[in-house]
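Exercise 3.2. Students should predict the tertiary structure of the chain below and write it as structure tokens, then compare their answer with the key that follows.

Predict this chain's 3D structure.
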Amino acid sequence: MRKTTILLAFFMLLGGAVRAQSLLDSVAKSFKFRSLGPAFMSGRISDIVIHPQDNNTWYVAVGSGGVWKTTNSGITWTPIFDGQKSYSIGCITLDPSNSHTVWVGTGENVGGRHVGYGDGIYLSTDDGQSWKNMGLKKSEHISKIIVHPTNSNVVWVAVQGPLWNSGGERGVYKTTDGGKTWNRTLFVNEWTGATDLQIDPRNPRRLYAATWQRHRTVAAYMGGGPGSGIHVSEDGGETWTKLKKGLPTSNMGKIGLAISPQQPDVLYAAIELDRRSGGVYRSADRGQSWTKMSSAVSGATGPHYYQELYASPHQFDKIYLADIWMQVSEDGGKTFKNMREQFKHSDNHAIAWRANDPNYVLVGCDGGLYESFDREENWRFFDNLPTIQYYKLAVDDAEPFYNVYGGTQDNNTHGGPTRTDNVHGIRNADWFITLGGDGHQPATEPGNPDIVYSEWQQGNLTRIDRKSGERVFIQPQPGKGEPAERFNWDAPILVSPHNPTTIYYASQRVWRSANRGDDWQAISKDLTRNEERITLDIMGAKQSWDNPWDVYAMSNYNTITSLAESPKKAGLLYAGTDDGIIQITEDGGKTWRKVEVQNLPDCPQRAFVNDIQSRSV
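Answer key:
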């Protein structure tokens, strides 16, 4: 890289920035990406399929990592979806009439702030070797795909639709020509999509669908509404009837459905209700009437993030409710206990069983894939799926091989080498954890690679000394009589390019420390719009406080989300916010100048400013 910098400077002297940029582009094309790992922690699993004729062949859908396939029970894996336009996967299904045919729905079906979106439904007819986009490109989030048990041309798809805006494609879609054309047969409104779909194994003309009304903005999240509900079709998904008897009359949120494999007249529904409450309901007459069994509901991050419901193929009335700790009931939902998950990552999303082994189960969670051979008593982790979801990265200047650091979704902050002299290459053992929690933006100190800054969500900043192992909590605090600091879920940390011990951090205002965070000085006032976010529009209008808000699912709002300092001029700082503002100071924070992001080319109003880079060219 030193040679590249020297050449770039030489060409700038000869011919200016145009030639320099041309050289830089040429040099960049000569580089190729290579995998550094790690897989000592893995990423969020959204769906799992075990091949019906071969217990050793699995397909695993990753929330932010495509589709992976193994033919030897996880000893080795092949990423089979990397050449497609979408990386976020919601669901995967094998054709029951032809297991060489694989359907994938892109865009995972959770309501989180970090969720990725997709570009429709894909089909492979050669075991995942090649793919074709079959439409529904405006769906963004696909929840479930069901293929007719005897007619491969008939497919039903539960489409949740966009999370961050109305419209798009949403509802239940059906094709009778193998995906060439699609007909929407169930539609509620512009904010409501289909979150789950079940088929009666005795009668493919009988289907059940759950709909979910939801909307997320940068400011807030509302996870329910009158559009949520349970519907039944008796004519192969052509027409639908909303089920009501025994079901809640208040606003419902995310609903998980399951049908008993042993007695298909029995249905189960896990229903989110107002203010993160909920319940599990059971029907013994194909959904015509329902009985509330308990008040169980997915907790922690919230039902919007879990709430998938599974019925055991090996035991009647045994159901699994996906949650931070998996909830298990053996009496149809009357009582639940937490599944044994010692030494297993939490935040569960997907389950798969082997048809011929009641002791075996595969579970996918935020930490990757686990299997149990003894009815969930003990777990084996697959430490060879490199699918961690990173927020932001940093590098140090360690020698002989520099390290790269990344803050992850629910998997801590990691560091690891970019190269190694070990004959086996970079291994999981070469990676290390600097801090727990949801990791976000890390930073390092130039000239001193032992000093690393890491944080967990909403601004909990820590300084780590890798040599001594010391960790010091250094989050700046408000003074007496000052309002609380609003730190973003992914608060920005910046090490000054002019003084390695000077760092900047931001809440709703910018902070500076000259001694690595031991002392702080606020160098700005509130640089955001400082609004009452509950008064802002959501679902197209201002909403009553009595409506189904989920405040625990929201990030802090009106916060600073990005920082940069000019490498040429000390004190020339840029601060970007989550409410569409860039603030600039040229005197170290004494005065600030506001730029509305909407005035920049091709930028929408109030765009979230995720990153600002100030470079010397």
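Discussion points: Residues 1-15 have pLDDT under 50 and may be disordered. The radius of gyration is 26 Å.
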